[in-house]
Structures are given as structure tokens and as C-alpha cells.
Amino acid sequence: MNATRKAKPFWRRTKPPKSRDISLLRPSSLDKGIRFETAADAIAESLRSERLLACTNRSSLPEQYLSECRAGYYHCEKTYCPICARDFRRWFIGELLRIVEQCEWRSQLVTLLLEKSQNLHDLRPEDYRPLLRRRLDQAGLHDTPVIGGFEMVYRAQDKSWVLHINLLFLGSAKLALNRFVDSLGSDNFVRPTQTVPLRDLPEQLSYLLKFTTYHRPFRQTGPKRSPAKPLNAREHVALVTWMSKYKFTDMMFLNRVRREGHRLRPRLE
Asked: Domain residue spans in the chain?
């Protein structure tokens, strides 16, 4: 055995059971945009990303990682790699499904728009971890298990980037949750926060943490979201450059939840 062989990341050490495998719960028979991304979808997106990256004069390293990962030489484990991101999300969503199905708490999903800027590199998830924990404490939610995922999206209307976070609250008093949400409201957004109960576990939990390179260029009218479109080359390259600074685990937010091997475990004591 080669002692220098790199150990597998924890999310590759197991596969979700069929009952919690999002690739089976939202299968390939569904339309694209509704189904969980298939292996073929991930490969196609990797090829598209590589082509866009090749159009620039920047470092060729990201496109090389995509190409060699796609060829099976190794797992690049880059957040901008659709193939590796799919593997990570299958693990993450499987863990969310296991926790929610086993817990006895009333669970809620909260989306918070944190900050926007025309300069993508002004937006840093690490700047918000202390703030989120402080606001949870101040709202009386310091003992509440919370699992979240940071995400970056592009808004074509004002050519800005928006950092937001989706949070799964595993039980919380309504008043305390309202205090937390109100404390993070922002005048920079028309609707900075949204809170919804869990109804369709596979669908809703699959959106908690994503690594997307598309945007919705048209304004939403009514409850239905506008169609998603791939980012243009300039914005795509900018987003890949930003994503390259972070690991998959950097995009997670855990409060009163610890990782034990490949398991996420809420802390109840």
C-alpha cells in the first residue's frame, strides 16, 4: 500500500442509501431543471465550462482540472467542477434527508440575501459566519441546530452579484426565528428574507447547497421563477475564479451540528 496515497474526502467514503439518494428521488426521467443533475448533465456542464475558460487569457489550470477530472485521472475536488460538486451534493442532501427524517423537530427553511456588489470578490462567505452565529445567539437560537449553504448568484438587471445563504432550522421557536430573520433584513433587497416550512423534502433540501453557473435574467412574476440561463463567458469565468478560492466545506454553515466521519450530527446536549 502506498503510504502517501491521499485519503478520500469524507463525503466519498460512503454512498447514500436508495431511500435517501437524491439522484433516485429526483431521477433522470424528470425534465432538466427539476431532476437532480445526472452524470451526463455534469459531464456536459464540465465541457461547457472548459470551453468558456479556454476563451480567456487567464490561467489554464481550472480547465486542466476539469479535463483531467472528466477523463478519470483523479477527482479534482474543485467547487467549480460539476462532476465533483454532484458527488458532494449527493452526500450532503442524503445527510439532510437522514437528519430531518429522524428528528422530531419542526423544521423550517430560511433564505437570506446577505450582500450584493458589482465586484464579485467583495463578497466573502467567511465574513458572515461570525455575524450569523452572533445573530443566532442574540435571537435566542444558540442551542438550535442549523445547517446551511452559501451560494453566489448573478443578477443581470443591475449587473451585480448576490451572496445568499439557505438555512435549515431543526426546530426553533417562532418568535426567536422571527427575531433572527428580522435582524438580517437589508434595504438593498426588495425581499431580503424568505421563510418556508418543509413540505417536499427531496425538492426543497436539494436547493439548500448548490454550485451553479447559471442565472435568471428575467424578473420573477408571481410565484413561478423565471427560466434559468447559462452565464455569459465573462461572468462564468469570474464566478469560476471566485469559486476556486473555496473548498466544498467552506460553503457549508453548521451551528450546533458536528461532523463525525461522514456523518452530520445535531448536538442536542
From this structure: 10-266
